[in-house]
Structure prediction request, 366 residues.
Amino acid sequence: MKITGVTQHHVSHPLDGAFYPTWIPGYPQGTHEAEVFEIETDEGITGITASPSFAGGIDYEEVLALFLIGEDPHDIETITKKLESIHTIGPRSWHIELAMWDIIGKAADKPVYELLGGSAEPVRAYASTGQKLPADERIDYVEERVAEGFEAVKLRITERDDIEVVRAVREAFPELTLMVDANKGWMVTVMDEESIWSVSEAIQVARELEDIGNIGWLEEPLPRHNYDGYAQLRSATDIPIAGGEFNHGAHELYQFLDADAVDILQPDAALATGIRQATEVAAAARNQGVAFIPHTWTNAIGFAANLQVLVAINGPWCEFPIDDPWVPEAWGSVIEQPFSVEDGYLTPRDEPGLGITLDRSTLNTE
Prediction:
């Protein structure tokens, strides 16, 4: 089998209102943007993938075609080396490896997780927010999620004062597991800049969260390459420390493990590793007693890939983005059947490859 073509589509889906993501401080989003790619082969099998994008799009169809046409999509090692070259001269392209697995699974008529040794066991989901809201609004949000069956919710903080929202939610829901994402690992600076915490400030935040209790983890309290700082923080608190969602390649994630810096690794297959390296890092993490729970905030195709990884490695939690107007119908608009959670669990799909079908009516929309 050989790759014969690459087709790119820019997709822009309007949101039902303004969304204020903590990773783009001060910049309201009114659309969900994605670059969708179809990788065609000489056997009539097409793999799909997607990356996050900006209004107007990021065009690199011709560059990908130059590197990929003529390659066998089963040869993941060669494809990975090609992608490393693309990283050097252009955008991160880990998401392209996902399309290879989509092709491999379709050729074998099996879901990717089955090819990787997994079985279709439901995965527990936690509701993941993406913006900061006042305590009363967050309490209403959490009440809705608990009614839907979620057993855990992740809240966003960027300043120490935001801990009061976490405290208020805890008082309203004494038994609910709360994760806390500080969003200090990376950010997109368009309008405003958020403060970066020192290690001592992060320790202070962690100790305040210890007082609140039943915190599943504190996520990305420091910049993503501050491995020593993470190690210092981890040794100073009982709160599990998480990070690595946007680190670049397996070698950076192994640095977290080498430094004993985290309790949970979170690389997103679409942003940081691809599928194969994700499973390799997950195995290394497991051997060290570190959990592997990937970030999923990209789009439905990236979500599908991370779910395949989670099922393959029997991961403990699946992050489920839901924070109005960033709802499954919006981030899932590029596929025919957006993902949903039933009684707090996601059931893996048994369709081959990534288990999803493009909604072609959404393609090439501006």
In short: The first strand starts at residue 3 and ends at 19. The chain has a mean pLDDT of 96.
